[in-house]
Fold this sequence. Notes:
elongated; alpha+beta
Amino acid sequence: MSDTPASSPTLRSTYRIEQMDCTGEETLVRMGLERIEGILSLEFDLAVRQLAVTHTADPARVLYVLESLDLGASILGEPSVVDTPSVDQAAPAQSAQRKALVIALIINAVLFLAELVAGIVANSMGLIADSADMLADALVYGLSLAAVGSTMARKNRLAARSGYLQFTLAAVGLTEVIRRFVIAGPVPDPKTMIGLSLVALLGNAITLVVLSRAKSDEVHIQASWIFTANDLRVNALVIVSAMVVAATNSRFPDLVVGGLIFLIVVQGARRILALTRLAG
């Protein structure tokens, strides 16, 4: 966040961000907006998918950055002139947030390895795809941590590498899904799918609580539970597919869900790569 230019009025703009309903997407928004000179504070309300920005930057520039992240951003009304916030008001609780990001990174990295191994053993593309989704989240949190104090060029390199890695994982995964559709293979083990998905769901819930409690705003915590993270829905999707596999003794429900999750990973990669276009 930059110091306020004396000649620029301090504005407060409110934005609706349709697809911002979890902490991972909030992290991407923060990373995008921190590249703009004149951003003083950000107030997120996940319950209504809104973001209030206090800034001296051009409102059009702020909206451009938000739109570039492909999260369905739009401005609500006209910016209003406000008093410049004090240093104490503008400074975020960075220590608590950094600690929360480290915990989230560790949880997602462990779940990535656990689901990957279980997916291979159980012949489940749903679990393997979910592991890639976990890795994608770990990359977002790790990218946010690594970018602190870095130059813009280094931030862009980190974002690009993370995005391309996600694209590669998704491409390999989708190729394998197609191959398994064409070539007959074993039916995945539904018990392993359900068991690991429940563990992953618990891990995602813990991550959600940890990241929410890094903020002092109790409304944010409530909002995080009202709009559960995308990861929780993905875990539930794998569980449902496992039940269908068990009922039909068919591998196809698992393959369909695996393909859908890999497409979600592709979308996440696109959003991370959008960060590399926001410099300047």
